[in-house]
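Internal ticket #5521
Category: modeling
Description: The requester needs a full-assembly model to guide mutagenesis choices. All entity lines are attached below as received. Residue total reported by intake: 500.
Assigned to: D.W.
Attached entities:
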Amino acid sequence: MRIPCPHCGERDVSEFRYGGDASRQRPAHGTGDLKAWHDYTFTFDNPKGPHTEHWQHVLGCRQWFSLNRNTATNEITGVVE
Amino acid sequence: MAKGYSVFSLLRHALKPDTPWGLAWEKPTPKSSYDVIIIGGGGHGLATAYYLAKNHGITNVAVLEKGYIGSGNVGRNTTIIRSNYMLGTNTPFFEFSLKLWEGLSHDLNYNCMVSHRGQVVVAVSPGQLDSMARRGNIMRLHGIDAELLDRGEVQKLLPYLDYSKDARFPVWGAIHQPRAGTARHDAVAWGYARAASQLGVHIIEDCEVTGIHMEQGRAVGVETTRGRINAGKVGIAVAGHTSQVAAMAGLKLPVESHILQAFVTEAVKPMVHHVVSWGAELFYLSQSDKGGMVFGGHIDGFNTFTQRGQLFKIQDVMQCAVSLMPFMSRMRLLRHWGGIQDMTPDGSPFICRTPVRDLYLNGGWCYQGFKATPASGWTFAHTIAHDSEHELNRDYSLDRFEKGGELDEHGTGNWTYKQ
């Protein structure tokens, strides 16, 4: 799999680190509801299909960015601006 | 259908080669209703059905498999069995599993080729050897066999490791569990399928579950590619697609699906007589009875359902192999493949009730499902039959993260592969 780093261009996946589902919303600062934090931290939609996710170019520019990828095919449809 | 396998039936068939062996398990058409439906005809699902029938007398059971028996992760793993766990429930659970492995071939009347060749985990630093001593002591306090080996003892057992003075990862010692070993993975699936079928369980292949029917918050049946089937209780044991099946009942789980690759080389004469694992990086290797080196490493590291591994991970695992065992550089890789498995935050599984009544979950096995197969089936059957957890799987609940009951065997916190 090749990943298009928005800064360095397309590179091999081995240069990157996966950072998880990017579509989730972090609970607001000060949220006291522990269930909300639990769900944010531990549960995942884990879709078989389109997925928006964080990646970091650890062996390159070290920039974090988000990617649209299909988990059923590994097809990457673009970087989230 | 072939009833009992024995030396006499073998002789009978040897003398009459034109009478074929009967089917190992029946191929029934699905009934409209069962007491229990198990979704997923892998090792865990089949074992669950077998123990439901054998231990609890519940024989009106169907196992629904979307492919054929043995096509999933039960036929994709590296066949290692062991019980060197040290946290909470893990230690007695996996030891119980290993004890079931010891009698499994007799219990199922099917040769699962269980081989107690022992597992040696090689330490590459004094600190690592200390932590292995701690693990070994915890195991021994539970009555599990564990021996700490120094460098000289390792060299006697595993003369083919890199003991040169410029080895990148020097061998400091090892921990050895003599009762650990391997089992023939396909035979485990076939054996459980046959034994369950003989007790009246319906094993239904080519039957994919596409929905879970609910009434007043209870699971009452499933929709399948072969029509609707009603059930008193429904158990999920589908490893890899656990999130998808659970979502049919409105559940969102602490699970991400990841690919783990495995490798096998050409066959050579017997030389690796143990399961060998490594402390420097996640790596494990054994030599199959056919002679090939069967080995694997860590997951690729990002969620996917493709069953196609990435080249960089193949390279990583080959580097591990050659670094630990220099002879591996002269072996030729024959095949490699991937399996999709559930990763959980703490690396431990779920065998539990769910927020939906009459719906039960068995999943989240990360890369340790195969060795757990007998105990997983045993405790999941208990959980379904009694609507309450067995003492061995009480801690494998879905709410353990809320309650501070994480079982992170690696000791590095949540989502180790994302760190």
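Resolution: model delivered.
Comment from assignee: The mean pLDDT of chain B is 95.
Ticket closed.
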